Amino acid sequence: MNIKTLFTGKALALAASFFSLIAALVLLIAPIDALADSKSISLTNVSYDPTRELYEQYNKLFRAYWKKTKGQEVEIHQSHGGSGKQSRSVQEGNEADVVTLALEGDVDKLRKAGLIDPGWVKKLDKNSSPYTSTIVFLVRKGNPKNIKDWDDIAKPGVEVITPDPKSSGGAQWNFLAAWAFSNKRTNGDEAKNKEFVKAIYRNVTVLDSGARGSTITFVENRKGDVLLAWENEAFLVQKEHPGAFEIIVPSLSILAQPSVAVVDTYARKHKTEEVAKAYLQYLYSDEAQRLQGKNFYRPSNPEILKEFKSTFNLNVQLVNIEADFGGWDAATAKFFAEGAIFDQIYKK
Amino acid sequence: MQAKTVERTLIAIGVAFIALMLILPLVTILVYALRQGWEPFMDAITNDYAIKALNLTLLATAITLIVNTGFGLFAAWTITKFRFRGKQVLTTLIDIPFSISPIIAGLVFIMVFGRIGWAYPFLDAWDIKIVFAVPGIVLATIFVTFPFVSRELIPLMQAQGNEEEEAAALMGARWFHIFRKVTFPHIKWGLMYGVILCTARALGEFGAVSVVSGHLRGKTNTLPLHVEILFNEFRLTAAFSVASILVIIAIVILILRNIVEYKLKQEES
To answer: Do B233 and A32 touch (CB under 8 A)?
Structure first.
């Protein structure tokens, strides 16, 4: 008798039943999420890196508001990471009801992917930017390398920390601000501008994938002389580590406008359109605007911004993406697309 | 005398290296976790998100264990007790997760089950979510821990050969009976060893899970991912507290592993 013939039939049957068991298991746990969701309304907000503290507080505010006006509990799930990376994950099937990303371009990629309906920029006030920010320098106490402006960080021997523009929205704002500074000085000499940003990126010693990663590198791991940071992130670091760092506002920076939008396709699928829209609209309410100010984002409501004039340097000259770079489509194509200026200068 | 010196030097180097590379970091975690006292530590590990993350990690590990133990047994059985063409290829294929980067493993699932993946239209029609949901995390964990059990069993079963099973078969024993009475007693401790290694790896898996998770707190966040989030939010004490749960589990596993290893040696002699 051959052992092979003896075993094959039943072993095969057992193997088959085993694998169908796996399939059943996977199918069983798949709908668990859906079941849990049906009890109370649930909202997923996929956001960028530095907004962790802001949305933790805002979600509490919004839940109370929604409970009061609609009598319904809303559970909000947060996800944070580099803006480009987060946009990518939503495109790949991370089903966010709303996205609150670092830049318009990252939200618009979702429109191009067919997830957000056209015309989203105009659906909310201020081009769907409830709060703005700008780019500043964070240096160590006493400013040992005497960094005052953009040309100081292009000098040899200064270690610069900034995230990767390919995956981080903040990093793109950093890059564009540096470019704008050079462009003003050279009166639009592209070759010289390239040289200038190249000198800065030659000084970059750690290129993290998101703004928060860069902050941790600079603050906790103590790498580098200067961190190119969101203004809100720089203030947050000062709050966490009083006295250890100084904020340097350069002579020229950029008006950074983070964008928010409902991800229409997913919201329709989850039947959360109403709450998703309200969630974003409520960001413009006076309470929410003040909360943003307290978290060091510049409120878009000029009246409320004035209440924070002792916090923010409102005199810094800010270029903006529409007027100075011709909008995000043009800026992306020129600077951050495959083989564009960032790739050219970073190669060597 | 000379040999004694060499021996001592080698032991000293070994101990110093292990202390520096392994013990010190682990102790650091515990020190940081308890730096601000007992209360922040308890707060961090009884936090709602931490508990949900722990549950998810345990769920993924449990399913992974069931699947990989079952598969490991089948694979080892097939490879060692039968002769067929392509056996070498099969053995190599089982080892793929060992040589592949976990990031690639995660991306593979995105490319298959994600919105741009080929299986998506089907999944969407049935409203099944794989990636950026719990099933994706389970799949990724299964993938990276796939070979542990079979890797342990194959050499063991190979060394034993088929004679005993064939004898039992000749005497008219049914196959399940053969497995239970003849094969299993031999591989019992080897199987345990594989299962323990698999558990340890599944609990700590970061890379592949990070790619497919979507990082939704309280929903698709495993314990290792939760540690990263806390760390990124400047909550170092909380991050280290949660990390210490993983360290404690790891130490328990280590002790179990040593017991099993001891049994395995006894069996062999």
So the answer is: no
CA-nearest residue to A217 within chain B is B232
- Spatial distance between the Cα atoms of A133 and A101, rounded to a whole number of angstroms: 13
Nearest C-alpha of chain B: how many angstroms from A319? 30
Q: Give the pLDDT band (50/70/90) at residue A25.
A: low
Q: Do B28 and B122 belong together in one domain?
A: no
CATH number of the domain at A278, please.
Answer: 3.40.190.10
* Residue A297 placed within a domain: no
What's the CA gap between A324 and A317, in Å, rounded?
13
Domain that holds residue B22: 1-34
Among the partner-chain residues B113, B117, B217, the one whose CB lies closest to the CB of A78 is B217
For residues B227 and B260, membership in a common domain is answered with: yes
- B19 shares its domain with B149: no
Do A177 and A46 share a structural domain? no
How far out from the chain centre does Cα B141 lie? Answer: 8
Alpha carbons A67 and B181: distance in angstroms, whole number = 63
Torsion of CA B261, B263, B267, B269, to 10 degrees: 70
| 3-state SS class at A256 | strand
- Report chain B residues whose CB lies below 8 A from the CB of A220: 234, 236
In the block, tokens 């951050």 appear at A336
Question: Which tokens belong to A186?
Answer: 């050279």
* Each residue's pLDDT tens digit, B46-74: 999 999 999 999 999 999 999 999 999 98
With CB atoms and an 8 Å threshold, state whether A25 touches B67: yes
In a shared domain, residues A165 and A278? no
- A249 and A227, same domain (yes or no): yes
List Cα–Cα distances, A50 to A57, A190, A230, in angstroms: 13, 32, 8
Three-state DSSP class for residue B12: helix
Structure tokens at A345: 């200068």
Q: Given the cut 0.95, state whether the ipTM is greater than it.
A: no
**CATH assignment of the domain containing B131:** 1.10.3720.10
- Sort out which chain B residues have CB atoms less than 8 A from A10's CB and list them: 175-176
Please state the domain count of chain B: 2
Q: Does B169 touch chain A (CB under 8 A)?
A: yes
pTM: 0.81
